[in-house]
Amino acid sequence: MRTNVTGQPGELELRPLSARSVVLSLLLGTHPPELPVKELVRGVEPFGVGGSTVRAALSRMVAGGDLRRTDPVYRLSDRLLERQRRQDDAVHPRTRAWSGDWEMVVITATGRGPAERADLRARLTALRLAELREGVWLRPTNLRRTLPDDLDQVAERCTARPDRPADELAGTLWPLDTWSATGRALLDRAARAARPADRFTVFAAVVRHLLADPMLPAELLPADWPGAALRTAYADYRRELNA
Fold first, then answer.
1. Are 141 and 98 in contact, with CB atoms under 8 Å apart?
2. Residue 97 forms part of a structural domain
């Protein structure tokens, strides 16, 4: 499922979900992330996906390593369990009061190929760090988390307090206005969506949008930041879906 911003910030083009995307969305929102095939088939029917289509998608997902099957149960693969953890953190962020300090990660490893560099960039972005300049990544120290130990093999970590005003620096590192505008557009679309398939599509987009939330301290965010409203709307939808 991809969310595209077209035209002005906040304008959305939401593509319908494929059978694979519907199955993954259901399992990513389920704890533990496993369901019998009968429940999966029944669960996707309200979203316009037929049983034969679901079963074909399940077979392809097992072959592709997305799912593991133990008759009659399908569960997320180990690779996608990490994606579920990131999604859970995005929906239920673990934060703390901000002291004014910033985490800084400086890449020191050299001689890495393009694939290794791209993988490291993706990992640092998933950790909600942002690149100030090539090889220098940072964010406020308001998240309750520790960075992976294996980062020490390629980077130096430290705590810093930049001279630049914190709100100005945050606005340089993250596209806050664009994220906020898209978030408000998603809330509006969710409020207007009536059909089950449309609501499911919108809230799948909400989760993907929350994965890109930098989770900054409140004092660094625009006044109309929609992060909390998006999380509340998604929690309400999950209760509705589970019911």
1. yes
2. no
Establish if 167 belongs to a structural domain: no
Residue 115 CB partners (closer than 8 Å, separation 6+) = none
pLDDT for 49 equals 86
Examine the domain organization and report whether 235 and 180 are in the same domain.
yes
The predicted-structure confidence for 140-158, as pLDDT tens digits, reads as follows 999 998 888 889 999 999 9
What residues have CB less than 8 Å from 26, skipping those under 6 apart?
35, 40, 43, 44
Stretch 192-202: mean pLDDT, rounded? Answer: 92
Range of the domain at 134: 102-160
The count of other CB atoms within 10 Å of the CB of residue 10 is: 18
C-alpha–C-alpha distance, residues 209 and 124, integer Å: 17
156: Cβ contacts below 8 Å, ≥ 6 apart: 105, 106, 108
* The pLDDT of residue 7 is above 50: no
175 prior amide bond cis, ω within 30? no
The SS3 assignment for 32 reads coil
Strand 102-107 to strand 130-133: parallel, antiparallel, or no bridges (unpaired)? unpaired
CB of 158 within 8 A of CB of 147? no
| Structure confidence at residue 121 (pLDDT) | 94
33 with 81: CB under 8 angstroms?
yes
At 147-190, the pLDDT tens digits run 888 899 999 999 999 999 999 999 999 999 999 999 999 999 99
Same-domain pairing of 19 and 80: yes
